[in-house]
Amino acid sequence: MKKLVLAAALTAAASTAYAGNLEEPVVEAPVVVEETQGSSQGIILPLILLVVVAAAVAAS
């Protein structure tokens, strides 16, 4: 019986020792890197298509 009580006491003491602490975990914010682009990057393709359509209309 003494061994059972001793085992229960050691188990209780060990479980509280690994319970953790009250401090909030430190979580670092992820680093986001954005590639910079010029403002004219999105207009090149529509301008090329416009030139091709205008050339096709002028040829016919």
Q: Describe the global form.
A: rod-shaped
Stretches where pLDDT is under 50 for at least 5 consecutive residues are none
Percentage beta strand: under 5%
Query: Total strand count, please?
Result: 0
* Class derived from helix and strand content: mainly alpha
Keywords: Membrane, Signal, Transmembrane, Transmembrane helix
Transmembrane segments: 43-59
Organism: Ruegeria conchae
Signal peptide: 1-19
Describe this protein with a few key phrases.
53% helix; mainly alpha
Describe the protein's architecture and organization.
Residues 1-19 form the signal peptide. This is Ferrochelatase. Keywords: Membrane, Signal, Transmembrane, Transmembrane helix. This protein has 60 residues and is mainly alpha-helical. The protein is built from two helices and no strands. The longest helix is centred in the first third of the chain and has 16 residues, at 2-17. The chain is rod-shaped. The termini are far apart.
